[in-house]
Amino acid sequence: MLCQNCGENEANVKYTQIVNGEKKEMILCEDCARKMGIGNFKMNIPINFSNFLGDFFDDYKSEQLLPSFVKEKNNECNNCGELYKEFIKTGLLGCEECYDVFQNRLDPILKNLQGSVKHVGRRPLNIEEKIENKEVNKDNTVDLKDISSIDVSGMAILVKWAKAQKDQKLHLINVPVSAMNLINTYRLGQLFVLD
To answer: Which of 145, 157, 153 is CA-nearest to residue 191?
Structure first.
């Protein structure tokens, strides 16, 4: 979507203003938002996100609230050794297998945070279709040259393909920066060879 102000750049800032109950929304590019003084909010409040998330997850430690959390034997990922109590402290999982190992515990947290266990947020148009139309070549390679950005749902498709390869890593060519960031953030590097 193009910026509603300049009509030239891709819009990536959504500005909503409510005055006397009347809601006005604008979709802007970063340059226009900066020129209009939108998004330059500086807060002098020291926020420790680890503590912030830790406080959020405290609700999920209680045996009375969710007794299955405490009684369940599987407190450690067999792949990376991540402990569930470490996830509660940091809010970070150790590897892609953690999602499966801790699924029963993660689903209520995700549902509480985003209203659903399935991501339905902002994503580039038709990204899933573009990725699904790609083919894994005989040499285990996928070329992403015509995809400018990959979101979490697009990355999920690539992870599914990579897991299907069993003994080989999936070789990704022309990887967009957004995909590199997701691979690093979610520690998925062991599934892919990147070029």
So the answer is: 157
> Is the per-residue pLDDT at 49 higher than 70?
no
Q: For the chain, first and last CA: distance in Å?
A: 29
Q: How far apart are CA 99 and CA 118, in angstroms?
A: 13
The Cα–Cα gap between 169 and 82 comes to 22
C-alpha 145/C-alpha 89 separation (Å) is 38
Confidence tier at 80 by pLDDT (50, 70, 90): very high
Sign of CA dihedral 42, 45, 46, 47: negative
Cβ-contact 167, 135 below 8 angstroms: no
* Chain mean position to CA 12: 17
Tokens representing 136?
A: 């894994």
Both tokens of 19, joined, read 């005055």
Here the tokens at position 101 are 């190992």
